[in-house]
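We emphasize that the prediction below concerns an isolated chain of 626 residues; any contacts that depend on oligomerization or on bound cofactors are therefore not represented. The input was used exactly as deposited, without trimming of termini.
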Amino acid sequence: MHTMIRFLGILFLCCTVVFRSNAQTPYLEKDVTIRSGNYTYEELFRQISNQTGVVFSYTGFDDQQRVSARFDKQPLRIVLNTLFNNGRFSYKLKGKYVIVNYKSAAKSKAEHSSASNSNLILNGYILNAEDSSEVVESSVYIKQSKQSAVTNEYGYFNLSFPKTTDVLSISVAKEDFRDTTVVIFSKQQNTLVIYLQPKSAPVSVSMDSVRITVSIDSVKPSHFPVSDTLPFINPFWKRFKERSANLRNISDTLFTNVSFSLFPPISTNRLLSVNTVNKFSFNLLVGSSKGIDVFELGGLVNFDYGNVRYVQIAGLTNLVSGTSSGVQLAGLVNTVAKDVSGVQVAGLINLDGGKVKHVQVAGIANLVKDTVKAVQIGGIANLNTSYTKGIQVAGIYNHSKNVYGGQIAGIANKGDTVSGIQLAGLVNKAHIIHGFQLSGLVNLAEKVHGSQLGFLNIADSMGGIPIGFLSFVKKGYHKVEIACDENLLGTLSFRTGVDKFHNILIGGMQIAGGRSLWTFGYGLGSVFQLGRKWYLDIDLTAQQLYLDKANFSYNMLTKSFLGIEYRFGKNFSIAAGPTLNWYSSENTAATDPIWSRMHQKALSTSVNGSFTNHLWVGGKLAIRFF
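Result of the prediction step, given as a token string:
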């Protein structure tokens, strides 16, 4: 039972497919084959009806007239147009009925006179010269009037255009086929069959009863103009080209002085707008072209599959697959697949796949794949995948592979090699910097040939001076110091940075009985080489002192140290020298428990408001390693 149901289901599906396949073929596209001979119209109508299913209807028509005919798998449209080509008869298709109308000689003459002032209807088929198969989505166009049509699934096209010249030049183009131009001297025949030759084969054009000349355009490689751009530009223009048959097929470039457009294809360039370069283009809503030579103004969007020069303005977006040189303004977005030279301003984003020169401004971000030689200003970010020669200014973030100039950002800058300045509110990062890094928080670099100024500076090697609360240079100066002064105040310090300028982090306690006296502090130091192993040390430190189990209060010991250091090797040295000490405390009582632990005779003692100050000379001995 299940097998029977399955069989019936498959049979029903096959019948449905066959029925739909037959039903979908229009009557005028059904093939007709008639052997060569001399037939009456009645005999021809009968054969045609048997092969296509149409029914002929006519009055006042002598179907016993004889006519010579021969057709080999020709569409019914061509057969009927050939049979009724003498101007005395016409036909129209209504459903499956072919209604034949007879015209008297006077009426035919009058209609011919009226038709001479009306549009000419030109139709036909485009076929492959090798196997006579239909060439689908081929472009048929008239350069003079910008009229064009695209063949349907049966290779059929239909064109309507004014009779303005005695000679009509029709161009046919299809990707992977040779461009073909057909020149028609006689306009009596309005149904054509044109054979296109694949590019690898010789050229052949066949037409029936029409005087023509044929020329073959030089074969131009079909290339996509955006082959190496930002990943989000390339797919857009690729899809744009795939959806435009005329853009894929036609290698010719047409030109016009002025173009007006509501939106494609409602344009003075009609369906050939993407193949036409305009000097001046005015687009009420949306316009498309193959390029602009002087000026373009669009209410919403300008699509240009080519180069744009001088001025381009859009209410929303400019999209250019080629280059832009001049001024480009958009309310939201500018996208240029290749180079930009001039001024580019967008309310939101500029997106460019080539080089950018001069000025680029965006409300949110500028994104450029190739080099930038410009002043680049982004409300949020500037992102360049190649080098920047100029200045990047962003509200949040700048990025460029190499920078020759400057980066200024509210939060962060990043560059591979930077020759100039990086200025950021929080973070700067670079692989190599020749110049200066200034940040509110962190500077990061591998090789620095210049200076860093920030709260935290980190580098692999340093050719200048890092200035900040803490600097760490991997191939710089970093020492662990154990020291003792005249008050037997022992300290453990970490010194980091470079010889000429380093930071000192201090912690320690007094080596004495009773309650412990603790200290922690911070300082700056410099080291200058005097000889092969002898160095001059200059330190300035500030240490907070406090007694164990006592309330915390302000007790600041400031030391300036001038000493001599002897380095036994790379990882061990001894330093010693005098210090000038200044102790300042908010304790103004007669007895200060911390000062009493100093056991020093002050050079000067003073009370300044709520603070007591003592000044004396001491000394320090230190060993350093690491």
